Amino acid sequence: MLARTLLLRHLFVSRCFSSVTSKTLKVGDVLRETRVFSSEDVKAYAEVSHDWNPLHFDPESARKASFDNPLVHGMLVSSMFPRIISAYFPGAVYVSQTLHFRSPVYIGDEIFGLVQATTLRETKNKYIVKFSTKCFKNHNELVVLDGEATAILPNVEMLQANPSE
Predict the structure, then answer these.
(1) Quick one: which of 63, 64, 42 has its CA closest to 52?
(2) Helix, strand, coil shares of the chain as percentages rounded to 5?
(3) Which SUPFAM superfamilies has this protein been placed in (predicted)?
(4) pLDDT 10s per residue in the chain (165 long)?
(5) Rounded to two decimals, what is the model's pTM?
(6) Where are the beta strands (DSSP E) in 30-125?
């Protein structure tokens, strides 16, 4: 467990951008954002998606399904990934996403979303980038969601290194 924690800390520190100066995206770069989902977020997502599964709203239904409390929709949590990418690269086109739901997210949990560039290739003045995607909770120790995303970026120059700060 200690080795995993040290590896995670290294991953978060390495190539995370914190200055406001423009940077060029490279393989290995990490982009991130932290978010706490509220009951209003869950309700708004249900309104748009029409997903009114009682697991998201009724504590008793959640407990019967072996959860501590009502769940934040997994797809709502995964919406952090295109948000992170487009915040650094306005005009990015999200092409694909794979997802693995590893652990429940509850209202009020602080979620740390992270995307890391794993491959980058230029084609016709655009860039196709594959990202490793992960969401963590409990101070970056518990993976709640992971997968891979592909996006087409208009360029690899970041206008702002950390748009959520």
Answers:
(1) 42
(2) 30, 35, 35
(3) Thioesterase/thiol ester dehydrase-isomerase
(4) 333 433 343 334 333 443 334 489 999 999 999 999 999 999 999 999 999 999 999 999 999 999 999 999 999 999 999 999 999 999 999 999 999 999 999 999 999 999 999 999 999 889 999 999 999 997 777 999 999 999 999 999 887 655 444
(5) 0.81
(6) 30-36, 93-101, 110-123
CA 5, 7, 10, 14 dihedral sign is negative
CB under 8 A, 24+ apart: contacts of 5-11: 5/141, 8/136, 8/140, 8/141, 9/140, 11/114, 11/116
Q: What is the residue extent of each domain of the chain?
A: 2-37+72-158
